[in-house]
Amino acid sequence: MRVRMEYRVGNNLKFLGNLDMINLMSRVLRRARTPFALSEGFNPHIKLSLGTVLPVGVWGEREYLDLELAEEIEPTVLVEQLNRVLPSDMEIKRCIKVDEKQPALMKTINAASYSFILESNDDYLALPERIMGEEQLLVKSRGKQKGVDKDLRPGIYKITVLPQEESVIIKIWVNVGEPVNVRYDELRDLLVAQGVKPEAIVNIFRSGNYIRIGTDFYSPLEKVS
Question: What residue numbers bound the domain in which 45 lies?
C-alpha cells in the first residue's frame, strides 16, 4: 500500500535540512509503530520519499511525502497516529491512498509558491503588474552557476499582494525544475531590486507545491491519476 501525505513544517523547524527531515520522519514512523515497508539489500531503509527539497531557513505550509506500507491501514488512522508523536510545530494535514505505479513526487511537482512576509506600511499593490510587465528579470544565480546572470521572468507565473493589519504578504508562484528553476533567495533578490527594503522581509515560507498543467495549479493530492 502506498500513501501520499500533505504536511506542515512550522517556523520553529525551518532550519532542518532535507536529511534531517528524512531522519525525523523515520523516527516518527517507528515511534508511531507504523507498518512501513523496507527496501531490500544489506542496508534496508524505510520506503519514504519527500517532494521537492524545502530550503533551509524556509518553513512549509503544504509539503508532501510518499510512503509505502507493508499492510493496509486507513489514511485517517495513520494521520492520527503520526500527529500524536510529531514535534509540536509539525502536522500531517491530509493523507490519501495512491496507486503504487504513480510517478515520484520529485518527477511530478513542477511549480511552487513562496510567500514573503513584509513588516512594512509601504504600498506594494502595484508591484505584481510592474514585475509581470518586464520582459527580463535578471538576478545573480544562487544555484549551481553562482554569480551568473539569470532571467527569472520565464519561471514566474503570477504574483499577489495581500495587505495585513501591520504587514504585507507577497506571494509568488514559480517554476520548479526545467527550464528555469526559481529559488526563494533569487526571488528575495528580485524583490529587493524592485524596491523592497531587505530589512522589511521578516519571514519567508513555501505556501504550496503544485502540479502545473497549462495555467492551472493542482496539489499532488488532486492529481494522482
Answer: 2-107
73, 120: one domain: no
Task: Find the CATH number of the domain harbouring 176.
Answer: 3.30.70
User: What span, in angstroms and rounded, lies between the C-alpha atoms of 206 and 75?
Assistant: 25
Residues 6+ apart with CB under 8 A from 200: 118, 119, 120, 122
45 and 128 inside one domain: no
Q: Are 156 and 138 in contact (CB under 8 A)?
A: no
d(CA 201, CA 65): 29
Measured between alpha carbons, how far is 53 from 44 in angstroms, rounded to an integer? 23
Segment-wise mean pLDDT, segments of 10 residues, the chain, 225 residues: 96 94 95 93 88 94 96 96 96 94 90 95 89 95 85 97 90 94 96 94 97 94 76
Task: Indicate the helix (H) or strand (E) that contains 105.
Answer: helix 105-108
What length is written for the chain?
Answer: 225
CA distance 127 to 171: 11
State the pLDDT at residue 43.
84
**Considering its fold, how many domains does the chain have in total?**
2
User: What integer pLDDT is reported at residue 13 of this predicted model?
Assistant: 96
pLDDT score at 176: 95
The three-point CA angle 182-168-187 to 5° equals 15
Q: β-strand 201-213 against 111-118: which pairing, if any?
A: antiparallel
The span from the CA of 140 to the CA of 145, in Å, is 9
Residue that has been written with the C-alpha cell 527496501 in this structure:
39
Residue type at 106?
Answer: M
Query: Is the pTM of the predicted complex or chain greater than 0.85?
Result: yes
